[in-house]
Amino acid sequence: MNNEPLAYRMRPRTIDEVVGQQDIIGPQTAIYKMIKNGHVPSMLLYGEPGIGKTSIAHAIAGTSGLPFIALNATTSGKKDVEQVVAESRITGKVLLFLDEIHRFNKLQQDALLPHVESGAIVLIGATTENPFHDVNPAIRSRCGEIKQLKRLRHKDIVQLLNAALTDPQRGLGHLDIDISPAQVERIAEGTNGDARKALTMLESIVVASDEKDGKFLVDDSMIEQMMKRIGVFGDKKGSHFYNLLSALQKSVRGSDVNASLYYLAHLLENGDLTAVTRRLLVMAYEDIGLANPAVGGHVLAACQSADRLGLPEARIPLAQAVVEMCLSEKSNSAYKALDAAIDAIHKGKTGDIPPHLRDTHYAGSAELGHGGYRYPHDTPIGSFGGWVDQEYLPKEVKSAEFYKPIVAGEEKKFAGIYEKLKSFRKKP
């Protein structure tokens, strides 16, 4: 077999060979038409690993005929950039593919940016991180196109695998391989839209299969065994990881149990238990809140249990916590009220603390006019406990009302008490 990996050999040679990403570089897109007409714009390609960023860059180079230079920003220095600039002076315009562009340092930028701006260098940057968060604005401003690539569809992966199985020059078509369409479908299912992993898995499965009379016999058990060895869930602490956290919280907030468990499963497969438990705990107070105050304690107990158990057992209490939060009544009134109070302070809506609320635990407090506080516990009111009608806010903001109760779950009771106490204010 060829020493180069199958995923490398099967990269598209032109933009017409690109599989998937048709909304980015398909025949009806502006980028496709520009490249076909001889104009290649500088661009940023953003997306998860294995979904075609490098392949698209190679395909653009193959279609345009521009000299192609590839660098990785994690290992390249200013000297590498200067060599690219020198190459452009000799050969004319070059296409520079810069992987991990979010790690581009200032020295590299200073050496390269004027040449990108002049058009001597066409820059195609690839990143797994959100370019609006992690790519320097100077780079973004010189890239006319910023495109987010999507995970490849199942049928795209199947198409790639079949192409690799039948291509005798670049793929595995020169080998006699006994593999069924159902087995190809299963490999595609197990790679989660990652073309590189799909092709790598196919090659590994074929190499590991038994050979009889020159034919490789692919077995279902070998496919399942190899699939367990290849991770398909994305990079921990990358943009995709934070997107998963966001999707989990929004699914719980939307009371969708199945979606919530799906995203929890992805997160736990990444193995970062601490980040997951922190997010679950804040969700209990941010999204469930006063509608079901007991959930905060339940989720804390589940998170502490998960930390003590570790994975994989940690999934058991966390699954229970997520399902309970999904199906619980929900309220965000408490923290929204606090945010409203913080906003009022930032806007200068402040005043002096009323004298009767100030500290009186020292000699001379009365001379300063402090005192007159009435102790609510001395005045029982029904079954509530104790309450007296006195001002607590500074007089400058005494009419402020930050809390807006939501009539849901347990907060329905709190809302009733809140409105009742408001009705007692300033009444005989």
Task: Name the descriptors.
4 domains, Rossmann fold, alpha/beta, 19 helices, Zinc Finger, Delta Prime, domain 3, Helicase, Ruva Protein, domain 3, 428 residues, 8 strands, 8% strand
* Helix content class: 40-55%
Instruction: Identify the CATH homologous superfamily of the largest domain.
Output: P-loop containing nucleotide triphosphate hydrolases
The first-to-last residue Cα distance is 94 Å
Let me know the largest β-sheet.
Answer: 5 strands, parallel
Q: Which fold name corresponds to the CATH topology of the largest domain?
A: Rossmann fold
- Helix run count: 19
The residue ranges in which pLDDT falls below 50 over 5 or more consecutive positions are none
Query: What's the average pLDDT?
Result: 89
Measured on Cα atoms, how large is the radius of gyration?
31 Å
Spatial ordering of strands, largest sheet: 2-3-4-1-5
